[in-house]
Amino acid sequence: MGELEKSGAGEPPGLRLMRIGPALTVTAAAAVVLLAGVIAGGLALLGVQGLKPEAQVSATTLFDLLKIAFAVVAGLGGLVALVVAYRRQKVAEAAQVLAEQSSQREATKLHNERFTTASGQLGHDSPAVRLAGAHALAGLADDAPTRELRQTCIDVLCAYLRMPYTPKPAKDAPEADRLAFAGLREVRHTIIRLITAHLRDNATVSWQGHDLDFTGVVFDGGDFSGAEFSGGMVTFRGAEFSSGGVAFSGAVFSGGIVDFGHAEFSGGVVTFSYAQFLNGGMVYLGAVFSSGSVAFSHAQFSGGEVSFIAAQFAGSAVGFNRAEFSGGTVAFSYARFSGGTVDFRDAQFSGGTVDFRDAQFFGGAVDFRCQYPGPLWEAPPMGIPDPVPPGVLEPAWWPHSGAVPGAVESKGTPDGPTAVKE
């Protein structure tokens, strides 16, 4: 059977077979011993005791013994055929394993060659070539023979976004500088679109569950709408949302960890409208909201854990209007409200826990006004200080120990917007 029959260093794991010659010899010897035992047993059963000379063996007895012998010989042939078939099957399985290993090695070699080419394109001076490299890496990730190789391609795309990113040139800057910036920005936004397309449910090849590292990335736009973060580690830690529009609209956070710790929302518009925070997910939003606007309007907090612990609301307009808090935990513990507006108007608190314990209110406005008392406030926010700090606007009907009737008419603090009576 060739090399596959040999035991040794080059033999596939699990294939330990005796050479065919010795195997058949052992089989034949075992069959002869079995035949002798059968004949002896047959003679004993037929009444021939001890094979004494005076014992007479009739023709019928001999005929019966010959039939037994022929049956044993036939069985011997079947046994030999079984041994040969078994060996053939084992060798075929080993050959298949070797073929699969060889195919895997070829696929990995081809992947590495394509990876080198695509990575080189991504580092090219021309934006058009970099765009081609981004698409090539995304396609290579889809074709990757292993999960690890796919993760490597994703890591390179994320690493490109983490590279230093110069601010947008002024309008009177040289045209060459403005064109170079526009090309770089287009490549970055294309990479974000490629990643998001693979995080949606309709993706041909899904990247859900893979790690995504956006640590320190400067976002001046980008579209993550409809993405599903269902596993792995996704980090926006220290990222800066400085201008433009970044959309997480309709995104689903249902597993793994999404970390916005120490991220800074310092300009532009970031929207989580209609996003869903479901069981199994953990989203950490201990970020700094210093300017611009961040919208969680109509978002559904129905499970998992969403943490605004130690977040700083210092100037942004952060909106939770008409959001639904129906399950899980949303924690604002140790958050600092010192400016801007945090808007919970007409939000629904029907389940779960929304916790403001140990939060600090120094300025701005935190607006809980709602026109719809009753079932929509079955599980109202807990931990609001008593008495209610200036700038915290509550419904007059909220059974809070420090609620002041007519609070909807409160003007808040000098740092916050004036509340308008509804």
From TrEMBL:
Pfam families: Pentapeptide_3. Keywords: Membrane, Transmembrane, Transmembrane helix. The chain crosses the membrane at residues 23-48, 68-86. Residues 403-422 are annotated as: Disordered. InterPro entries: 5peptide_repeat. The keyword Chaperone does not apply. This is Pentapeptide repeat-containing protein.
